[in-house]
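Dock adenosine-5'-diphosphate; give full complex structure.
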Amino acid sequence: MSAFKTLDDLPQDLTGQRALVRVDLNLPMRDGRATDLTRARAVAPTILELSQRGAKVLLLAHFGRPKGERHSTLSLSEVLGAVEGVLDKEIMFISEIHGPVTAQAIDILGPGDIGLLENTRFWPGEEANDPEFAKGIAAHGDFYVNDAFSAAHRAHATTEGLARLLPAYAGRAMEKELKALDAALGNPEPPVAAVVGGAKVSTKLAVLENLSRRVQHLIIGGGMANTFLAANGVDVGKSLCEHDLTDTVKDILAAADEAGCTVHLPYDVVVAKEFSANPDSLRTCNVHEVAEDEMILDIGPQATEALGDVLKTCATLVWNGPLGAFETPPFDAATVALAKTAAALTQDGSLISVAGGGDTVAALAHAGVENDVTYISTAGGAFLEWMEGKELPGVAALSA
Ligand code: ADP
Ligand code: MG
C-alpha cells in the first residue's frame, strides 16, 4: 500500500473551506425507515471532525441503483433524518450535485455546516466516471475526502475521478480500514493464517489463488471444503460440491505447495441426511466415512481444535467465509469455536485478526466476538476484491 494523505495532513483550521466528502449512506430501508445505521455511524467521526474544524461539509453518496436517472424513491433525502439522528446535527439537503442551485445552497452554509447532495447515481456521469461530470462537482469543493472504502472497488466519478481533480484525503473510517487491511495482508507479521469458507469455491477462486501465494496457512472450511476433499478423492456423498472444479482445486493445491503454504482440510465433519435444525440423522464422522445419502454441513470438533492450535502459532489471521452452515444449529459449532479462539488470542495480544464478508460479519456477531477481533470489514465487494489482491481504484487514486 502506498502512502495516502489523511485528515491530519490538512490545516487544523478549515474555516469556510468546502470539503467534498464521499461516504457510504446506502442504508438498508424498510417502509421508508433505515433498519441499520452501521454505515452512517461509520462515517460520523469524519463528518463531525471536519465540521468541528470549521469546514463546510458536503456529503456525496449513492443510494440504490437508479441507473443514471432521477427516481423519487431513491432520493438521498430518504436517509436525511437517519443521518441527522446519528450525527445529532441538522443537515441541509441539496437536490442537485452541481450547477448554480448547488452553488447557491453551499453559499448559504456557514463554517461547520453540513450539506447532503443528491444521489450521485442519478447522473450517468457517476458510474461512467465522466471527467466533465467530475469537474462539475469538483468546482464546489476545495478538497476531497473519501471515507467510503465499500465503494472503492468502483472507479466512479465520486469514488475515483474527484481524487484526481482536487487535493485528496482518506477519511477516518477509510484510514482505519486501510491500516487494518495492510496489517492483515499487505504487510502482515508472519506466520499468517487465512480462513476461507462459505458456500462455493467458484465465488472465491481469485481469493484462493491470491492467498495461496501470500499466507503460510490456508484453512479451508464451509461448502467449498467439500470440493477440495473431492479433488483429493474423498466421496462427499450428497454434500454441496462443485465437481467440475476439482481440476482447478488441484491447481490451487499445487500452487500452495510450491509457495510453501500449508492447506488445512478437515479430517472430521458433521453430517446429516436432511438440512434442518438438529436433525435426527445428525452425526460426526471421519471425512472418509460420509455415506452416499449424507451431506457435510460443518467441519468436525477434532479438525476445529487442530485449527485452533494452528492459530496459536500464527501472528496474523485473515478470515472470509463461515466454516459451516452456521445459520442452522448445530452447524454453527466450528465457526463459533474457532471465532472464540481467534478472539481470545487477539485479546491476549498474540494475534492480529481481520475478517470480512457479508455472512462472515453475521457469523462473528453470532459468535459474540465482533468487539474482540482486531477489525471487521463490512465492505462486501471491496473487501473481497482486496482479498483477491486487486488494486482498488478508489484507494489507488488516494495514493497517487
Ligand atoms: P461471505 O458472505 O462471508 O463471503 P459466503 O457467502 O461465501 O460468505 O458463504 C456463506 C454461506 O455458506 C452461508 O450461508 C453458509 O450457510 C454456507 N455454507 C457454509 N458451509 C456450508 C456447507 N458445508 N454446506 C452448505 N452451505 C454452507
Ligand atoms: Mg455471502
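Observed: Residues 358-359 surround magnesium ion (ligand 2) (CB under 6 Å).
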